[in-house]
Amino acid sequence: MHSPDWLTIDGNEAAALIAHRLSEVCAIYPITPASPMGEFADAWSAEGRTNLWDSIPQIVEMQSEAGAAGAVHGALQAGCLATTFTASQGLLLMIPNMYKIAGELTPTVFHIAARSLACQALSIFGDHSDVMAARQTGFGMLCAGSVQEVMDLAAIAHAATLVGRIPMLHFFDGFRTSHEVAKIEAVADETLRDLISADAIRAHRARALSPDHPVLRGSSQNPDVYFQGRERVNTAYAAFPAIVQDCMDRFAAATGRHYHLFDYHGAADADRIIVIMGSGAEAVHETVDFLNQQNARVGVLRVRLYRPLQASALIDAIPATVKRIAVLDRTKEPGSDGEPLYKDVVTALAQQQMQGASRFATLPRVIGGRYGLSSKEFTPGMVKAVFDELGRDQPKHPFTIGIHDDVTHTSLDWDAGFRTDAHTDCVQAVFYGLGSDGTVSANKNSIKIIGETTDLHAQGYFVYDSKKSGAVTVSHLRFGPRPIRSSYLVDDDDAHFVACHQPVFLQRYDMLDKAAQNAVFLLNTPESPDRVWDTLPRRMQQQMLDKHIRFYVIDAYKVAQDTKMGTRINTIMQTCFFAISDVLPCEQAIAAIKQAVEKTYGRKGRRIVEFNCQ
Predict the structure, then answer these.
(1) pLDDT for the residue 128
(2) Per-residue b/e over 590-614, b at no fewer than 16 CB within 10 Å?
(3) Using CA atoms, how far apart are residues 316 and 575, in angstroms rounded to an integer?
(4) How far from the centroid of its chain's Cα atoms is residue 602's Cα?
(5) Pairing relation of β-strands 305-307 and 140-143?
(6) Fewer Cβ neighbours under 10 Å: the N or C end of the chain?
(7) In terms of Cα–Cα distance, which of 299, 19, 358, 300 is closest to 157?
């Protein structure tokens, strides 16, 4: 087993680190929230960073996502190792080429930061609408639910596609995973060399189009042979789940991190389970642990390889004691009698029952629900509501969770005050900033400093308005001694530290709703300490008294002006956070901030670095 190196990065960078090392061509066309993957790859090649075979991947930016998919298709036909990155409408534009790539059994991996499709309106935020629209193309579909899984499953996807010749969509939730910063174990080059089959690469190159061994490809077919040709791929798809599992097993031997096509977590004798894929599984995992401590018998089945779906592996992963199953889909298929994952689970159970081979004394009752569309919050309180619904005599189907549906009454009620014990030894902090004022960048650096200079686990998630620059940004940071599975925002009454970087927000946002008892509140304001209390809204004053909040103020814009920083207050507010929060000793924190400044602003010149350090 290779000794791990720790990184503090986001999901997009985790995917790009694998894709760049295992590719010779990356054809890109940026689209939110997948853009950073292509940008990372482009920057790394521009600075001469090489792949696993010591060559610099060629980055080609095309005129659209359709062109990017076409360029990948062409590179693959020439025997290259090629990849691309996309989301949402961009993935839809790739679908025609994806049918061809899959039909020709050509190995590749497309990395997808899964995102809503434009329906009644456009949304840039995350769900599974786009990847579900591509499930008929013939691409395999492998789902990651955390930043660590993004890096690990990206490597497994690249390894499996080469051996099995099924092209892969490696997807993870847009923003919730793609933009979450977390401390993870890096996948070493030695692990990748162990994982990637040199024989499979040689076979891929041998299939390249060449005048030295001409073949007919991409022809026109008539009814006499087309049907037979479509069925010819069956053996490849039947064999592929075992190939993916073999890659997962070899990855586990190298790293100690174990994955399966379907991973069950919870009570061995569970009577109720949730089936889910993506980042929502992390919140369910956390809630299952808490509920089972209260003598519940619940569990979660996490779907990793969604296509090709191996029904026997899915059913084998479910405890035989299960009587009720809720299947959660992060997409909506209007007019259908159930969403895609729900229908797959029901079909798998029904088929086994009809064949007389059921593992269950009584076929479990299955209900389906929708959650988290367009990054709508999915919290432990909502997870508990789903388990509670499963316990009713007549559980609702279909249902929604996370919204109030007063039109068709599909929604479940949930307790917004429900908490697990996951944060008892975890510090939670919330920062309100203005888009482009540097707050998000400073908080990303803070998370990296905590992750890289301490033994603490760290998580940072950043809520942007879709208008981005000039709109409010809210940074949610957590750090503690245990792995952090909380794939949801810091909730009301939970934040130990709240910072307001723009005084105008005092009148617009009830930010102290998030403050816990005895929390710290840091305010950037031009008001003097003896006058600032009178500038606060009355409700905020009362909250500070009721919650015994410690109050700190700084005129960061004056400090920025004095240190020739203009209006950039991010480094100033970051220094205040470390000085007040006691996460690190002050001298250690300042040294780490200066290192981060050097790394972040070094290419902009020494003057900028010196102003920040000052």
Answers:
(1) 98
(2) eebbeebbeebbeeeeeebbebbee
(3) 52
(4) 29
(5) antiparallel
(6) N
(7) 19
Dist CA 487 CA 211 (whole Å)? 52
Phi and psi torsions of 488, nearest 5°: -150, 170
Q: Are 216 and 153 in contact (CB under 8 A)?
A: no
Residue 434: predicted pLDDT = 86
Structure tokens at 261: 């096509």
When pLDDT is averaged across residues 127-139 and rounded to a whole number, the result is 98
Q: So what's the pLDDT on residue 545?
A: 97
How much is the CA Rg of the chain, to the nearest whole Å? 25
Phi, psi of 501 (to 5 degrees): -90, -10
Could you write out the DSSP letters of every residue in 444-458? Answer: HHHHHHHHHHSS-EE
| Inter-residue contact 236 to 165 (CB < 8 Å) | yes
8-state DSSP, 375: G
Amino acid at residue number 459: Q
The answer to pTM > 0.85 is yes
Tokens of 11: 């999901």
- Sheet of 365-371: strands edge to edge? 262-266, 298-303, 272-276, 324-329, 365-371, 399-401
Helix axes 280-293, 380-390, angle to 10 degrees: 70
- Look at residue 564 in the predicted model and tell me its pLDDT: 80
Q: If pLDDT is split at 50, 70 and 90, which confidence band does 387 have?
A: very high
CB atoms near residue 218 (< 10 Å): 10
Positive or negative CA dihedral for 274, 280, 282, 286? negative
CA distance to 218, 371, 373, 499, 611, per residue, from 332 (Å): 34, 9, 8, 37, 50
Q: How many residues does the chain have?
A: 614
Contact criterion met (CB below 8 Å) for 82 and 72: yes
Per-residue pLDDT tens over the stretch 543-585: 999 999 999 999 999 998 888 877 778 888 988 999 898 887 7
CB 431 within 8 A of CB 501: yes
The angle formed by the CA atoms of residues 302, 307 and 309, to the nearest 5 degrees, is: 70
C-alpha angle with apex 393: 311 to 316, nearest 5 degrees? 20
pLDDT digits (tens, 9 = 90+) for 581-591: 888 777 777 77
**What is the distance between the alpha carbons of residues 91 and 150, in angstroms, rounded to a whole number?**
18
How far apart, in Å, are the Cα atoms of 467 and each of 390, 554, 585? Answer: 39, 28, 37
Q: How far apart are CA 376 and CA 378, in angstroms?
A: 7
| Amino acid present at 74 | G
Question: Which two three-digit tokens encode residue 190?
Answer: 């030695």
Full strand arrangement of the beta sheet holding 515-524: 6-10, 181-185, 457-464, 472-480, 427-434, 495-500, 515-524, 550-554
Q: What CA–CA distance (Å, rounded) separates 354 from 357?
A: 8
CA–CA dist 260, 252 (Å, integer): 10
The label of the residue with tokens 């950073």 reads: 36
For the stretch 11-38, pLDDT in tens is: 999 999 999 999 999 999 999 999 999 9
Kindly list the distances between the CA atom of residue 548 and the CA atoms of 193, 491, 493, 512, 583, in Å, as whole numbers in the listed order.
56, 18, 12, 12, 21
Question: Could you tell me the maximum CA-CA distance found in the chain, to the nearest angstrom?
Answer: 88
Tokens encoding 530: 């003896």
